[in-house]
Amino acid sequence: MERPKVVLENNDAVYEFYRKHQQPRLQAKGAYWLLSRRFQPRITYAPGARERLREFVSRGRPVLISINHLSQLDPYTVGAAAWRSALRPIIGRTRVLAKDELFLEDKLRRRIDMMGGVPVFRGKDHGLRAVNAAGQQMIDLCAERMAAGDSVALFPEGTCNLVDPAEVQSVGSGIGHIAFRAKKLGADPVLVSMGLSYGPRGDASVEPTEEEAKSASFYFGMPIPNLPTKPAEITRIARDELQSALSGAVAAY
């Protein structure tokens, strides 16, 4: 299937492509392994969380992975953490939401496609009204992929936190709608919160360098297997759980 150009005006073709796109699993696993060698993240878990997450993964429950967003390097350090964590078995079967501009350059797009990327047209870039229809398609795509057994990873803050790296910023409602629609399609997603810390930062508006991003602290909260039936309630839980995980990552750094 021909890869469509990732521009907002072409969103119908874009999401039709990613609705069917399949990652090369062996290649994805190799890439995540290399990232783990490069960034060497440190992984900790809430008490009992590792065992519960392994259980849900082994049972084939789709996982909705929520991560706080600090830097343009996050997709790479998160990939490294996935390899070193209980998420390793679902590498190659996880869709990762990423801003559309990352799909413009062909070489980078092929790399992101291989790692499971799905483009997101953000309101801050194109205007809220302009991206509404594309946003609904993206949510439907994620729900359908989860109903088919895939997992989904996203940064629910929607943009890098350049204010306070120890405090989760406003969380968009998309995470709640993805889980809600996945449940309507018969999926039973498990919410997993990954807190990420690059350590104390003198100026939060200055992103860490690649060297500073090494040995990042990741903390997995306890998986939430029974989510509410309303998107707003799911979003509220996602925000609270992500803050708890972030606090754990900061404490463990």
Give an overview in words.
- The protein has 253 residues and is an alpha/beta fold.
- The chain has one domain (13-252): Glycerol-3-phosphate (1)-acyltransferase, CATH 3.40.1130.
- The chain has 10 helices and 7 strands.
- A 7-stranded mixed beta sheet has the order 1-7-6-2-5-3-4.
- Helix 2 (25-39) crosses helix 4 and helix 7 (128-147) packs across helix 8 (174-184).
- The longest helix is centred in the last third of the chain and has 22 residues, at 231-252.
- It is globular, with a radius of gyration of 17 Å.
Task: Detail the topology: elements first, then pairings.
Layout: H1 11-20, H2 25-39, E1 42-45, H3 49-58, E2 63-67, H4 74-83, E3 94-99, H5 106-114, E4 117-120, H6 123-126, H7 128-147, E5 151-154, H8 174-184, E6 190-197, H9 210-213, E7 217-220, H10 231-252
Parallel strand pairs: 1-7, 2-5, 2-6, 3-4, 3-5
Antiparallel strand pairs: 6-7
Keywords:
single chain, 253 residues, alpha/beta, Glycerol-3-phosphate (1)-acyltransferase, seven-stranded mixed sheet, 10 helices
Oligomer: single chain
Mean pLDDT: 96
Kindly estimate the percentage of residues that lie in beta strands according to DSSP: 5-15%
Question: Could you say which structural class the secondary elements and strand pairing correspond to?
Answer: alpha/beta
Organism: Nocardia uniformis
GO molecular function, one term: 1-acylglycerol-3-phosphate O-acyltransferase activity
InterPro entries: Plipid/glycerol_acylTrfase
Keywords: Acyltransferase, Transferase
